[in-house]
Write a structure and sequence with these properties.
Low-confidence stretches: 229-254
Radius of gyration: 20 Å
Order of helices and strands: HHHHHHHEEHEEHH
Helix content: 40-55%
Number of helices: 10
Distance between the termini: 79 Å
Mean pLDDT: 84
Structural class: alpha+beta
Strand order of the largest sheet: 2-1-4-3
Largest sheet: 4 strands, antiparallel
């Protein structure tokens, strides 16, 4: 059998994730970790030893790897970049500390980790585009503003889906992610549902489906994170939303 040409083999190897994509992956990992803790807390295993310890230590290691990837970018030092690395170091410390605690306390330490990782991804994306505009990823302009918002909320671990009496619906924070938006993103292969992986909507209820980004979804979100179209919710290191028209008029009149 004739071996395939070397060029063909090279094209089969997917490119490694960018530093921004790694942070979005990290957010997803923390969301899965927190979901697993939530399910543990609703079982008798919650009173036993820490079943989450190995997962917590993996989270800490993944966070440290993300820090090394950022440092490998060799960007000029800035206050924003320094704070991003410090924030990730804090996440790694909290994840490590949570491994020695019971599930309830451990869950509190990593509760905000997905949002923090996404916030760091926004800051890093902004820094990279500002300093290396020519090599920045091409934005996925097929995404609408609503879809960008939805992807960002999903990345933060804010969206679950479930059904009742054969009717599907979503649960999310503001901005709301509607089922129609979720289905549109699923049709494009940008998001997926992890069945029965998130805690129930009410005590004694069935688990819900966690909505997560796919690899393609992570790449698409990473390409628009720092652009005005994505309009990420206000948080440290993110771009604030524009003022409503009435507020702008009030500001101009002062």
């Amino acid at each position: 059998m004739t071996p395939p040409p070397t060029e063909a083999l090279l094209f089969e190897v997917p490119p490694p994730p960018t530093s921004v994509e790694r942070l979005l992956h990290l957010a997803d990992q923390y969301t899965q970790h927190n979901d697993a803790l939530d399910l543990v807390l609703r079982t008798t295993a919650a009173s036993g030893p820490n079943p989450h310890a190995d997962s917590a230590l993996r989270m800490a290691a993944s966070t440290q790897s993300a820090i090394k990837a950022i440092q490998g970018e060799r960007l000029y030092e800035s206050a924003e970049l320094t704070e991003t690395v410090m924030r990730l170091q804090q996440l790694a410390f909290l994840a490590t500390a949570s491994a020695d605690l019971r599930a309830g306390t451990a869950r509190q330490l990593t509760a905000l980790a997905p949002e923090a990782a996404v916030s760091c991804a926004v800051t890093l994306a902004t820094e990279i585009r500002r300093r290396r505009w020519a090599s920045a990823p091409v934005a996925d302009h097929r995404l609408t503003a609503v879809q960008c918002d939805a992807l960002a909320e999903i990345a933060r671990g804010h969206v679950v889906a479930s059904s009742l009496m054969e009717r599907e619906f979503t649960r999310s924070r503001e901005p709301k992610v509607l089922m129609s938006t979720l289905r549109a993103l699923e049709a494009r292969g940008l998001v997926k549902r992890s069945a029965d992986s998130a805690h129930s909507a009410y005590v004694g209820g069935p688990p819900q489906d966690r909505v997560r980004l796919t690899e393609t979804g992570i790449a698409s979100l990473a390409s628009v994170l720092e652009l005005p179209l994505a309009r990420p919710s206000a948080a440290p290191g993110t771009t604030p939303r524009p003022l409503p028209a009435a507020a702008q008029a009030t500001t101009r009149s002062r």
